[in-house]
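[Backbone geometry]
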Amino acid sequence: MKPSSSSSRYIGLGLLFVLLAAFPLVAPLFGLEFYIGFVRRVLIVALAAASLNFILGFGGMVALGHAGFIGMGAYTLVALSDAGVTSAWIMWPAAALVAGLVAALIGTVALRTRGVYFIMTTLAFAQMLYFVVVSLRRYGGDDGYTLMSRPTLLPGLDLGNESNFYWVVLAIVALALWWLHRATQSRFGHALMGIRDNETRMRALGYPVFRLQLVAFTIAGAIAGLAGALLAGGNGFVSPATMHWTQSATLLVMVVIGGLGRSWGGPVGAVVWLVLEEALKQHTEHWHMPLGLLLIAVALWAPKGLAALYKRRLPVTPALSPEGRGSKATP
């Protein structure tokens, strides 16, 4: 009996998780200790890209300020560290909470606009946050802030050890990605995609469009804030550059390359972008050019994203039909 495509998919994801978990054990055997930190960074950025895809690909909200939420999470961790807090059980949830609250406030205003005005509103708010952080001299201002140590999680678990921190990040990212995928498969996710496809129709059917969009925007901001806290803890350094609009644009490009509205679109785009960036930087100062050509190639020959090129891919989930059941949607 052949395994179902769903079973094969979960087996594949399980194998991928095992391989990623084994990487810190194997890397030192080949003198690749440096890449433990690199893969950890890829995992965190993949989570941030997935959170953007949640509102962009599944919700149709083209936001150009997502890095602002990453920065809010990172600077929440900085503020708590400066105040003497060391527990990850406080710092990481607080980072997600603060970023989520900021996203809710921004979304309350931005979601009343449409099209290019929504893009510009999210960009404007993100740049406001950027300049606020630059003005905070207590936290280093434009020079950034160096963290003295990583948060503590459990007695006997030293997060200062690269492998230990890597495994914690892997577990958090895996759980968050699983939760995001489940959210897109839920009635909430179906309604969100219905709004993406035809907002007027969903409003006529009685769906609270603004409320659903605001909840999604807040969730995406909170997850991005968590990613920011993990990124700050891993790097041991935070600067305003983390939340500059160019970082938001890079995240958006990652999602487009990976595949809008596909569960693995954000992570695939992040992996491809960061791996190519790391490889190209070792050979040329003009590494942006090949990445730009990649974006053009994807737009021309793989407009559905690289995630759609897999033979066994996660399909774009259909939106709700008027009867409340999934209807066929255009991928």
Remarks:
- The longest strand covers residues 145-146.
- The chain is about 65% helix and 0% strand.
- The beta strands are 145-146, 237-238.
- The radius of gyration is 20 Å.
